[in-house]
User: Which sequence fits this backbone?
């Protein structure tokens, strides 16, 4: 099989077409660059093989499905953007995609879910408090938390008129802390040199 | 670190990087993993790349280490050596059967 016939191989074309349509969130120039590189890789892998068709099949299998490959590229792209962003929505969506690639991403997703969930809960409470005066930070037999108690006479409200400013500040702190921790986790993906303390800790783990 | 190290001596394209990893360190990195990592390392400024028209009849994208990439590779290799030395001294009695 010649290089020219490989370049127009139907299976390669089908793979690249699916890859192109799955590369969402990647800039058009980067997308064309990725397609060109993957095409060159498949052709390189097959052109000197004794059985080019089998070589193509093997290479496509090792690349993964176009959707899986696109997802890795898109997630890498998103992670780069999100690690310098302050948008909770972008960070949350990125964590969702990152969660599908491994444990660290899953941890980040649950952290985002908890942190932004708390921030959202606080914000909603602040906005509905003027319309639902019984909403407050209650403690007593019905439990502890931001609730509307069934029997307010048996419960004790902790914040009173400070409810709105205090809960607004708590919500803000949750949002900022979650954002900063997620950005830090995303930046930590870069391979780096472990500190002496980390190396000692690794060594201690091995020795144990 | 392995990908950065494979580019220490020369510019390589994707398939050559895979072969270098496999032949020199027996690391089998899947193609589907390598290219997104190369893209990330390039985005972080550790690698640079350019398309070169090859005699094969189609262009290939060659990668090389940037100055920060060389610095990072050197740091990581140093840290790895230090760690490996300590581990070697730890397992030495086991290997020696003492």
Assistant:
């Amino acid at each position: 099989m010649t290089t020219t016939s490989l370049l127009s191989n139907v299976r390669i074309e089908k793979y690249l077409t699916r890859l192109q349509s799955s590369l969402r969130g990647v800039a058009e120039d980067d997308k064309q660059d990725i397609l060109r590189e993957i095409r060159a890789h498949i052709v390189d892998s097959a052109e000197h093989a004794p059985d080019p068709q089998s070589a193509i099949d093997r290479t496509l299998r090792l690349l993964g499905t176009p959707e899986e490959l696109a997802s890795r590229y898109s997630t890498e792209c998103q992670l780069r953007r999100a690690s310098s962003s302050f948008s909770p929505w972008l960070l949350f969506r990125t964590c969702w995609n990152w969660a599908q690639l491994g444990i660290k991403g899953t941890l980040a997703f649950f952290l985002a879910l908890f942190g932004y969930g708390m921030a959202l809960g606080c914000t909603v409470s602040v906005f509905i408090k003027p319309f639902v005066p019984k909403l407050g930070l209650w403690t007593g037999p019905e439990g502890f938390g931001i609730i509307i108690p069934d029997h307010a006479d048996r419960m004790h409200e902790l914040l009173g008129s400070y409810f709105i400013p205090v809960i607004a500040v708590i919500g803000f702190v949750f949002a900022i802390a979650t954002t900063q921790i997620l950005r830090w986790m995303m930046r930590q993906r870069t391979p780096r040199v472990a500190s002496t303390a980390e190396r000692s800790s690794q060594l201690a783990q091995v020795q144990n | 670190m392995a990908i950065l190290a494979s580019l220490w001596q020369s510019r390589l394209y994707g398939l050559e990087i895979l072969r270098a990893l496999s032949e020199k360190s027996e690391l089998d990195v899947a193609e589907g993993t390598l290219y997104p990592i190369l893209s990330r390392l390039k985005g972080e400024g550790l690698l640079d790349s350019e398309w070169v028209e090859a005699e094969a009849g189609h262009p290939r994208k060659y990668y090389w280490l940037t100055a920060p990439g060389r610095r990072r590779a050197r740091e990581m290799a140093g840290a790895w050596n230090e760690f490996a030395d300590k581990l070697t001294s730890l397992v030495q009695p086991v290997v020696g059967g003492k």
Observations:
- The mean pLDDT of chain A is 84.
- Chain A has two domains: 1-82, 85-196.
- DSSP finds nine helices and three strands in chain A.
- The interface with chain B takes residues 3-4, 7, 30, 33-34, 36-41, 43-45, 47, 59, 62-64, 68-69, 72-73, 75-77, 79-80, 189-194, 199, 202-203, 206-207 of chain A (CB under 8 Å).
